């Protein structure tokens, strides 16, 4: 918000009095219409509706601009005295734009027939209008009071416990489902800029028409914030698209994500992960509650309005302890200056929080960027975030187009490397039977990583990408470990680095270290369902089924479509002998997770002595999944106590370098009874896992 002087701001409202109650309504008007505004305010307050109106409610000695922002944010609705004077007032437009960005109801009392400018009409095109343009304002006041009372009684969305996301899920290939489970689940958790692989657990392969999977059995376990919130901690919420056609959501999301990435590089500043922050997208929430849910002392929010070759960005920093505004600003720049805008926002936040950035001063990047290349870059990130096969391919294409325009665009180079790595490790890059296709894409990914290293030699994420391919594609765990060690050396406190380290520790059965890293990662991304699901996987294999169930339920509470969490829930119940609970859990695994579903059913039916049902599930698993899921078939045989068959399928899995091996093999409860068998120990040695 541009700071304005007292004379300029006198045209419109401001904030509630420091000692007064929170207002229900903010009165916005141009100064020539002050008499009408005061009459409307009087009518509302006689009806019991508290109003905020300037200059009456401005705190003596307070800064007018800050008062305006506070009051609009605190109100439940805004009453606009709409006239020729208001239509030509830039301050009224800013107030209406602010209210729209907060998703407040806007009720307009139109007192003349003056035409509206396009900007104001855009923000009012869905608001309620009351017509008093004939000059009889008094007769319109009862309708105004009634409209306001209805508006302020509408419920506000405030998260309690865990916010639920019900976004439509992208369509996907069944092959990807399996490969996503295998790699991202607990092997590599791709540590790539703005692309933490734990997110892949959540929505990588959901089917659009499929309803959300409800948690099995008892009520979801709420996610609570860490008891102590670090003072220098911030969450960056998705920016609101205020563009005229509402077609710049990818640009607004990209702006917020770029700023988040920039802040995450600052030592001493804890930045909440994107997955958790973006849980609140499209929700009208109390930012103090957001801070509690995320464990952040501050929240950065903003809006983006793009028009042709210019952008207008507003940003504000709010202290979640008391809801106070610590810093705000607005920027009206050419689109080519978008990098500088991001740097300015980051610098303003740093100054407000008083973080010592040292050598990592955020305002060091190249200021100018080709607008077309940057637009393609943001489209690539948006397509990537869909986490389906088509989105992945589109993302690669957009990144390559951006780099053809600006070959030195380091962020696009890094993004291309990341999405190619995902393409390989998720199984999108090959077919069920042709591993050579995957090898070809893996070679492209390796080349992209090396190209990115030339422009980003200190990027910890690139070591994560290397490690991802070593683990999932090569089963080369020593090489993967070496890359993780480098990532930790560069960015030891980074959330993605922590989670990446936890994945390999759990892959190798180093449970204590793995679980410690997972807890540290969750502190920085507490509403990330994928991380809770991965935590459940590691706990299950470490021999803690009760704790694994708790984490699985938390994942499902955050996102009912965190499908693999249901699989861990089933195996935890199976270990405890709660066969009916396990059966319900496995049955609720969606059909596009057929491999895990059938393996679970074969195991639980066997435990329930329902031999025919177990045999049927086993036959279907072997018939339909032999080429893609030899490890899960081996697991099902082991649960049926058929070691010879299990060993045969384990060797087929080793031949295929099945990605379920690093994800599940070490500590798999199905093989616990065979830990001392020399043949099983020999197989562990063959695939490079400790005995």
Q: How many DSSP helices?
A: 31
Structural classification: alpha/beta
Q: CATH topology of the domain at 6-153, anyone? A: Rossmann fold
> What is the fourth-level CATH superfamily of the domain at 6-153?
Toll/interleukin-1 receptor homology (TIR) domain
The share of residues in helices is 40-55%
Point out poorly predicted stretches.
1-20, 156-227, 357-363, 429-436
How much β-strand is present in the residues?
A: 5-15%
Overall body shape? elongated
- Our measurement of the CA-to-CA distance between the termini, rounded to an integer number of angstroms, reads 61 Å
**Total DSSP E strands:** 11
Task: Write the CATH architecture name of the domain at 6-153.
Answer: 3-Layer(aba) Sandwich
Radius of gyration: 28 Å
CATH class of the domain at 6-153: Alpha Beta
- Characterize the main sheet: 6 strands, mixed
Output mean pLDDT. Answer: 79
Can you walk through the features of this model?
This protein is of the alpha/beta class and 691 residues long. Among the domains are: 6-153, Rossmann fold; 233-368, Rossmann fold (3-Layer(aba) Sandwich); 590-691. The chain has 31 helices and eleven strands. Strands 6, 7, 8, 9, 10 and 11 form a six-stranded mixed beta sheet that branches. Helix 15 (389-405) runs antiparallel to helix 16 (410-425). The radius of gyration is 28 Å and the shape is elongated. The termini are far apart.
Notable characteristics:
Rossmann fold, single chain, 691 residues, alpha/beta, five-stranded parallel beta sheet, six-stranded mixed beta sheet
Summarize the structure.
By secondary structure, the chain is α/β, with parallel strands linked by helices. It is built from 31 helices and eleven strands.
């Amino acid at each position: 918000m541009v700071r304005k002087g007292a004379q300029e701001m006198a045209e419109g409202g401001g904030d509630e009095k420091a000692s007064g109650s929170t207002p229900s309504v903010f009165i916005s008007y141009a100064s020539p219409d002050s008499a009408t505004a005061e009459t409307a305010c009087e009518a509302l307050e006689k009806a019991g509706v508290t109003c905020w109106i300037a200059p009456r409610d401005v705190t003596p000695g307070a800064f007018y601009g800050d008062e305006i922002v506070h009051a609009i944010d605190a109100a439940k609705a805004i009453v606009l005295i709409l006239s020729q004077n208001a239509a030509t007032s830039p301050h009224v437009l800013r107030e209406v734009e602010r209210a729209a960005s907060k998703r407040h109801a806007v009720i307009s009392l139109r007192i003349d027939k003056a035409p509206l400018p396009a900007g104001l009409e855009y923000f009012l095109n869905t608001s309620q209008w009351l017509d008093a343009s004939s000059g009889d304002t008094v007769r319109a006041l009862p309708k105004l009071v009634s409209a306001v009372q209805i508006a302020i009684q509408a419920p506000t969305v405030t998260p309690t416990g865990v916010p639920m996301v019900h976004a439509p899920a992208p369509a996907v290939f069944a092959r990807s489902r399996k490969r996503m489970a295998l790699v991202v689940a607990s092997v590599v958790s791709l540590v790539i800029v703005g692309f933490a692989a734990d997110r892949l657990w959540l929505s990588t392969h959901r089917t659009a028409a499929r309803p959300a999977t409800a948690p099995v059995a008892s009520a979801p376990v709420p996610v609570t914030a860490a008891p102590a919130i670090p003072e220098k901690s911030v969450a960056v919420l998705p920016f609101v698209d205020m563009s005229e056609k509402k077609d710049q959501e990818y640009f607004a999301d990209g702006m917020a994500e770029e700023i988040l990435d920039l802040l995450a590089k600052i030592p001493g500043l804890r930045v909440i992960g994107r997955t958790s922050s973006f849980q609140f997208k499209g929700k009208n929430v109390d930012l103090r509650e957001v801070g509690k849910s995320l464990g952040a002392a501050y929240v950065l929010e903003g809006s983006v309005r793009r028009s042709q070759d210019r952008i207008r960005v507003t940003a504000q920093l709010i202290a979640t302890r008391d809801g106070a505004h610590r810093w705000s600003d607005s920027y009206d720049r050419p689109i080519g200056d978008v990098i500088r805008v991001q740097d300015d926002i980051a610098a303003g936040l740093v100054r407000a929080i008083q973080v010592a950035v040292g050598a990592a001063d955020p305002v060091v990047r190249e200021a100018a960027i080709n607008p077309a290349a940057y637009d393609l870059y943001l489209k690539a990130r948006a397509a990537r975030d869909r986490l389906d096969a088509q989105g992945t391919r589109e993302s690669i294409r957009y990144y390559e187009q951006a780099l053809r325009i600006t070959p030195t665009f380091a962020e696009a180079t890094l993004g291309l490397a990341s999405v190619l790595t995902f393409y390989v490790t998720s199984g999108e890059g090959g077919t069920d039977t042709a591993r050579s296709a995957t090898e070809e894409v893996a070679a492209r990914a390796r080349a992209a990583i090396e190209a990115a290293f030339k422009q980003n030699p200190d990027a910890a994420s690139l070591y994560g990408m290397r490690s991802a391919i070593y683990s999932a594609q090569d089963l080369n765990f020593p090489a993967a470990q070496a890359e993780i060690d480098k990532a930790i050396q560069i960015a030891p406190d980074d959330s993605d680095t922590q989670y990446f380290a936890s994945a390999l520790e759990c892959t190798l059965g180093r449970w204590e270290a793995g679980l410690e890293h997972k807890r540290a990662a969750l502190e920085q991304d507490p509403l990330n369902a994928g991380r809770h699901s991965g935590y459940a996987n590691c706990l299950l294999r470490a021999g803690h089924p009760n704790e694994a169930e708790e984490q699985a339920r938390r994942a499902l509470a955050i996102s009912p479509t965190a499908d693999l969490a249901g699989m861990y829930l089933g195996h935890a119940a199976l270990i405890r002998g709660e066969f009916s609970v396990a059966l319900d859990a496995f049955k609720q695994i969606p059909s596009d997770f057929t491999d895990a579903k059938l393996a679970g059913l074969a195991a639980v039916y066997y435990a329930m002595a329902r031999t025919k049902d177990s045999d049927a599930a086993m036959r279907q698993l072997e018939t339909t999944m032999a080429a893609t899921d030899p490890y899960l078939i081996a697991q099902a045989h082991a649960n049926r106590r058929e070691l010879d068959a299990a060993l045969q399928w384990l060797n087929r899995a080793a031949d295929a370098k099945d990605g379920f091996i690093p994800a599940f093999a070490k500590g798999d409860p199905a093989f616990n009874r065979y830990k001392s068998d020399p043949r099983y120990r020999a197989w562990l040695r063959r695939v490079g896992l400790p005995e």
